[in-house]
Amino acid sequence: MKRKIKSIKTGNNIFIITLGLNVELVKDDIIGIPLETFPTKNVGDDHINGKLTVIWRDWDNILKSHPKMVYVSHVNPHEIKGPHLHTKRDSYFVCIRGKVVFIAKDNSGSFHEIESSEEKPILVQIPKNIASAHINLSDQMSTILTLADPAWRSDDDEMKNVVFDDYDWKKWKNN
Predict the structure, then answer these.
(1) Are 143 and 111 in contact (CB under 8 A)?
(2) In the chain, fewer beta carbons within 10 Å around the N or the C end?
(3) Contact 161, 117 (CB under 8 A)
(4) What is the rounded distance in angstroms from the CA atom of residue 132 to the CA atom of residue 172?
């Protein structure tokens, strides 16, 4: 069963509605997708013993490209990774431990911020040639699960470091 997708435009933002989930298309294919989370139950007495969060299914049809690599990265407390861009790779990020904010700079130079956390998992799509960074807002190390296409190779030279000189990094210092 494929997810039913439709889109509506409100002001400057476009929202995609998929299976009742509001998915914000920010700009230039920068997207935040709320993830489905289900309680899991103990097989003996049916009490809730945890949860399952769906990151990606090949039949969902909500990703621009299917991942060719999955990896986990970690960000130390209050540290910034990036900004940089990938010239060949589409990336999808979700914070699975802690809390981070992803900052992406669209092709017109505007910044977009999307929070993702273990409590509120949002899959963030960053297409190739869009610069982004992420900041750990937690007092502990945060963990990011990444799906990428194409897969990374040690001899790749497709990542370019950039500078967000006109971004207000200080606003995240007290979070």
Answers:
(1) no
(2) N
(3) no
(4) 16
Structure tokens at 113: 């911020």
Question: Which residues of the chain have a pLDDT value below 50?
Answer: 1-22
Q: What angle do CA 31, 121, 132 make, to 5 degrees?
A: 45
Residue whose entry in the numeric block shows the structure tokens 């209050």: 78
Q: Tell me the sheet residues that pair with 136.
A: 100
CB hemisphere CA count around 57 (13 angstroms): 9
- Secondary structure of 63-128 as H, E, C letters: CCCCCCEEEEEEECCCCEEEEEEECCCEEEEEEEECEEEEEEECCCCCEEEEEEECCCCEEEEECC
- SS3 at position 173: coil
The tokens for 143 are 């963990």
Side-chain-side CA neighbours of residue 144 (13 Å) = 27
* N- to C-terminal Cα separation, the chain: 40
